[in-house]
């Protein structure tokens, strides 16, 4: 009851690296579990800083349901200026709690968990929203950070393999680094472009930027798939011109995301086509004559599911670090 484990970042990364297919399956199942109302996913809480308007630390509490017995919270910082010194933008920890007693049972380094669950959700969407596959297509990646790299790794694991990749980033060294990563890991033709319009014309467009305000005003064409992972890239008219798939409607329509701005502009949610779980369950039908945009706000239940999976593997592998006497008092009297 009073055991407490630490799972370090290197351990987390290695577990996730060799188990991407299991993570993909887990994320798909968790989306369905959430859609069925068997999870609790409260609003995220944003800690902002007046002197650093681009930075924030977010708390994502969640509960996977009585069957799992897992509750917890992810505490994740996003400080974009870190990248200027070569430091990753995001850092995070995940605390897991036992449902029976409420006691915390583990702390995991969670930047890798967060990027993996984000990337897996993008790959699950890429498979479900382009069921005919990506062979012969071009995938463009706008933004070339850790999230973008991880998304590409999970797209490959999900067999969303295009004919070629196109990479665009305002910071060319980052874009070139992602392009080289793709050449090395996927053995596919990859080009870097400084022309955003060229990237936006690709068959599938992945947004993984740190944009705070929309900058894409050109509508997408029928047949295009947009994985709008960074959430604030698209102007409201672009959103309104597409079929919109969200991870959770109430969760996504807040915090001035592009879908939230579209709701504010129209006073309606009629532009929302459905959820990804609805697509996975066969409850949502898409129109091939219109573009599709997937906008996931990011659900804490996904972090919990992936984190609990990592903890289980680390305990089995003997790589979780037990902290003796973590709790200072274990008896009331």
UniProtKB/TrEMBL annotation:
Origin superkingdom: Bacteria
Matching Gene3D superfamilies: NAD(P)-binding Rossmann-like Domain, ornithine cyclodeaminase, domain 1
Leader peptide range in chain numbering: none
InterPro entries membership: NAD(P)-bd_dom_sf, ODC_Mu_crystall, ODC_N, SbnB
Pfam families: OCD_Mu_crystall (PF02423)
PANTHER family registered for this protein in UniProt: KETIMINE REDUCTASE MU-CRYSTALLIN
Name of the molecule in the record: 2,3-diaminopropionate biosynthesis protein SbnB
Organism: Streptomyces cinerochromogenes
């Amino acid at each position: 009851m009073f055991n407490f484990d630490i799972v370090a970042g290197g351990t987390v990364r290695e577990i996730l690296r060799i188990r991407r297919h299991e993570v993909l399956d887990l994320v798909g199942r968790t989306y369905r579990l959430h859609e069925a109302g068997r999870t609790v996913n409260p609003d995220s809480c944003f800690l902002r800083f007046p002197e650093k308007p681009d930075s924030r630390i977010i708390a994502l509490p969640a509960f996977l349901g009585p069957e799992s017995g897992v509750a917890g919270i992810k505490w994740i910082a996003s400080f974009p200026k870190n990248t200027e010194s070569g430091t990753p933008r995001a850092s995070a920890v995940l605390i897991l709690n036992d449902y029976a007693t409420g006691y915390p049972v583990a702390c995991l380094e969670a930047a890798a968990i967060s990027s993996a669950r984000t990337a897996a959700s993008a790959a699950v969407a890429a498979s479900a929203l382009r069921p005919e596959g990506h062979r012969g297509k071009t995938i463009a990646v706008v933004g070339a950070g850790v999230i973008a790299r991880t998304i590409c790794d999970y797209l490959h694991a999900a067999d969303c393999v295009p004919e070629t990749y196109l990479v665009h980033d305002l910071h060319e060294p980052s874009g070139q680094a992602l392009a080289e990563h793709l050449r090395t890991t996927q053995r596919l033709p990859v080009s870097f472009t400084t022309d955003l319009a060229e990237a936006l014309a690709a068959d599938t467009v992945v947004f993984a930027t740190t944009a705070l305000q929309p900058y894409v005003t050109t509508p997408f064409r029928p047949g295009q798939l947009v994985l709008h992972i960074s959430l604030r890239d698209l102007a409201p008219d672009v959103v309104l011109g597409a079929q919109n798939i969200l991870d959770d409607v109430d969760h996504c329509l807040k915090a001035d995301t592009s879908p939230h701005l579209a709701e504010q502009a129209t006073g309606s949610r009629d532009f929302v086509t459905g959820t990804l779980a609805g697509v996975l369950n066969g409850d949502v039908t898409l129109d091939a004559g219109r573009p599709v945009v997937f906008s996931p706000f990011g659900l804490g239940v996904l972090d919990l599911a992936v984190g609990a999976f990592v903890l289980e593997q680390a305990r089995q592998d003997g790589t979780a670090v037990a902290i003796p006497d973590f709790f200072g008092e274990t008896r009331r009297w």
